[in-house]
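LOG
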Amino acid sequence: MVAAGVPRPRADHALALVNFALDMQTEIGRQTFGGRRLAFRIGINSGPVVAGVIGDKKFIYDLWGETVNMASRMESHGRSGVIQITRNTFYLVSHEFDCNARGRSRSRGRAASKHGA
């Protein structure tokens, strides 16, 4: 999981994440692992999250909330080699990236518009 704009907000958080996802795809595409090429599913969503450090013995910084859940759904319901974004992220990045609408999907009782960046 990757987050931008946490703990300090940044206006370009969505652009930073899509650029990072594209960079990850490029680097993975250059490598072979055991003679095979890998392709990741990547899901991105934008919105509010709750963030903090948890743990008693081993501390970890984590994020929670519907924004995180929806990003996870975008990844798990996505296609390999595709960056799948929600409508929230689409509105923030469509002026910089060529995005293709994949339509609506229902995920655990919620309708979500899917776009590929």
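LOG (cont.) second protein
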Amino acid sequence: MMNQKRREDMARRIAALARVQDMAHATVLEIGADRDSIGAGLLVEAGAARVISTNFGIDWTSSDDGTVARRLLDARRIPDAFEAASLDAVFGVAVLEHIDGLEAFFAGARHALKPGGVLYVHGGPIWSCAKGHHLGLTTGERQYKFSRPELNPVGDWTHLTLGRQAMADDLAARVPHEDAQAIAAQIYESTDRNRLGYRDICDAFAKSGFTLIEQHDNAFRQPPAELRAQIERGRYGGQERYDVTGVTFIARSS
């Protein structure tokens, strides 16, 4: 269930979309939609005549009331589902970190958008930030979640310096052994995140052919100098910014 804070954030983002795209009678593709259709409802309130509300979850149910259509969609395969120049806007919040194939997503969005149509897309927490491991796991009666300090046993940025077994060994000092293994497996092996850092995401967008209107980086703190040097030496280095938790691109299709 989307809480009030998230609802307010979604409303603010849709208002930002409406400032650069006339929403009256617009057809909007929503990527990574919430199961309660709150985002879709807010898009309709903003003026959209038709919202195609999509997700890639296996439990996503399809429906269509004439204004909001719920569809299962792989965001990397938009051209398979939409004709060229058929959409006025593509909108997605907290999706960039989940799409393993951003080049295909951006290309598909360009295919489906009308000339002058707008892409509003956000990602976060992205892999290169302190909590980019995106932990969210329930094991038995125990719950682990990156957004709640009391439920997050993973040290900030340690997912960028450790491997799967080293992470499990580190966690075993704070959580049951079987949970440590499950958390490490989710961080490094789950298929619901792309493990792209800030520079990787920005580079993928730069190659997309969209004309950037605005970019917003949500930045907090950088890792300590010694830890940052360790990150840079490892597999996930070269990302330039380790303080950016989320990035938003607002762009126009030519």
